[in-house]
Every structure is written in structure tokens, then in C-alpha cells.
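hey m, so remember when u said the C-alpha cells were messed up on ur end? i reran from scratch. heres the input so u can diff it against urs
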Amino acid sequence: MKQDIILAGVGGQGILSIAYVIDNAALADGLFFKQAEVHGMAQRGGAVQSHMRLSDGTIWSDLIPKGEADMILSVEPLEALRYFDYLRPDGIVVTSSTPFRNIPDYPEIEKVMEAVRRAPRSVVVDSEKLAREAGTVKAQNIVLLGAAAAFLILREATLFQTIDTLFRGRGTSVLEANLKAFESGKKAALGS
């Protein structure tokens, strides 16, 4: 059992929090993981990506070869497109419909979404709306993690517990908002 995931987004969208939850849930589920360094964090709003590899056996490289990623998990839809050449023929893209317009010539969102839907499989959720409904717009990353949960080789209960561990020290309202964001993302993905 193995799974290769490309995490993508822009600086400040919580890619490191997604990586923390997946990495720690993998360990709790008895899996090995390797994660390539997260690139692009030098500037808020700049492109961010990381390779994550999970397996029940030895993982020899932390980089995912092109054409081998099982999933692209992106907090920003245009950033998801940047890594399509890494996706397997039967891979899935889980992304937000909410653009982060960090460049002056950001394409029309309808064209971006049309391109995302050309993936073999795709799940698109309105992470901004769902995070706001959960109690904080900052939880868009956790909404997307919830949307990806059904497609991960990790147990949902382990993901939920790791989110609890990550946010418990930040106060009850922050914890509850993130747990609700995860559930909202999960429900949105199952309905799409």
C-alpha cells in the first residue's frame, strides 16, 4: 500500500499544517512517509509545493516522478494545474474553487476550473465559503484536507485526532472551527 501526493498552494495558505496532519497521521497509522522540502515559503503569496510519499514499506526517494502522483491536493486552483504532469492517468485532483489572485494576469477562474476538470478525477470545493461557515476563513486548508480524506490511505479517525492535536493548544474556538472545517470538506467532496 502506497500513496504519492503533491501538496500545492501559495505561501500563507496552510500547506505546512496539511503536511503536519498527513505526516503525523501516517505515523499513527503505522506507515512510513517521506516529504520533500516545502518550496516557496520565502514569500507570502508565492507558489508553494511539496512531495509527500506514504507507504507500508520502504520509501527510497522523497521525490515523486512525473506521471506517478496519486493525488494533487491544492489550496489554490491555478497551482493545481502547475503539477498536472505529475498526476497518474487515474489520479485525482482535490482543489478549491477559490482563487488566490497573486499575479496581475491571473486567468479567468472559469478557464482554470475547466482545466482542473480535465483531470482524470477531480473534486472541487468552495473552501472559502465552507471555512467561513465553520468559523474561520483561515481553515480553508483543513476544508481541503477533509475533501481529500476519502481518497487518502489514512484512517479518517487518525486524521481527525491529528487535527485535534495540532489545534487544541490554540483554544476551543479554533479547534472546533478546524474540526468543523474538516467535516464540511468531507461532506462537500462526497456530494460532488
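this time it looks ok to me. The chain has a mean pLDDT of 92. if urs says something different then somethings off w ur setup not the seq
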